[in-house]
Amino acid sequence: MKLNQQIINSDICLFLGAGASAPFGKALMASFMDRILEKALSEESIGLLQFLCKAKGKDLEEVFEDLSLFINKSYYLKQKDAPYYINNYVSEFRAMRNRAIELNKAIRKEIIEHAIFLPN
Under DSSP, is residue 30 helix (H, G, I), strand (E, B) or coil? Predict the structure, then answer.
């Protein structure tokens, strides 16, 4: 298809929402998120994504926003002399942050792979 070659060779990539890319064989948000859930991720990361999708719907931007909140709180990693009563909280947060990092990487990889592939 001639249009796909123009898209592949373009210097500009325009992302449109509300199903504008569906005629070009691109997944809609809900089906895209379902594809992520089928990926070989840790059980904990899949659980986190299911939790976020249930809370936010299958909205990729909302999921990314929440993942960023977990990831960007790196000061938890530096807490060595935390009071004993919050040590469990800090270690659980570190684990949650690691799940968020794994999930963030997997989603971004899927986006890139999905955006690059255009059927002929």
Answer: helix
